[in-house]
Amino acid sequence: MLKKVGIIVLLLVIFLLLVKRKNMSWKQSVVRAIYPLFVLKDKWFKKPSFQQTNTTQQQPLVSFYSLQAKNNKGELVDFSAFQGKQVLIVNTASDCGYTPQYEELESIHQQHKDLVILAFPANDFKQQEKKGDAEIEQFCKINYGVTFPLMSKVSVVKGPEQHPVFRWLSDTAQNGWCKRAPVWNFSKYLINKEGVLTHYFAPQVQPLSPEFQAALQ
Predict the structure, then answer these.
(1) Facing residues of 115 across strands?
(2) What are the boundaries of each domain within the chain?
(3) pLDDT digits over 3-12, tens only?
(4) CATH number of the domain located at residue range(s) 50-216 in this protein
(5) Among the options 96, 140, 169, 205, which is catalytic?
(6) Whether 178 is catalytic
């Protein structure tokens, strides 16, 4: 029995040594290594609620282009600059099981040059984003090669502190149909070239999945 336990401990130590990345914590390194298991699990237990679509083409009651937000440099970004472009908004975190989706998002950013990706770091779920804006940017660039815009850290869940962008995304009185606020890190919202919110995707939907790719077309 003790021999088996010793072998298991040894294998665990070897695994940890193999997956540890220089610029990541142990937790972040392990999460990146086991991310394929997250993907496999989500494929097995996929639910209809993982995706919501604006099938009736409900128009927003408040213009998407009236919104503003600060980027991670503290500069105000006016969403009117995104007119005529498809926009993907994602709430992100550095210590989440879905953090490796940064890499998939970067892949989409490289493939779809007309798509604007806005990542909003948030610390709303299990305090999985404790870093400041500068640290977040460094983490994303070094470990996932992120080049798409990173916004200043905000709160995305419903409540007094919810950022106006996510209030718009989760309020039917503003966007016309969707009331789903982020349920976890890496919830995704797709806005078309006319400023209409067309899709909500739960964190379990990978950016490179067929259903997500179909929505981008």
Answers:
(1) 86
(2) 2-44, 50-216
(3) 555 455 444 4
(4) 3.40.30.10
(5) 96
(6) no
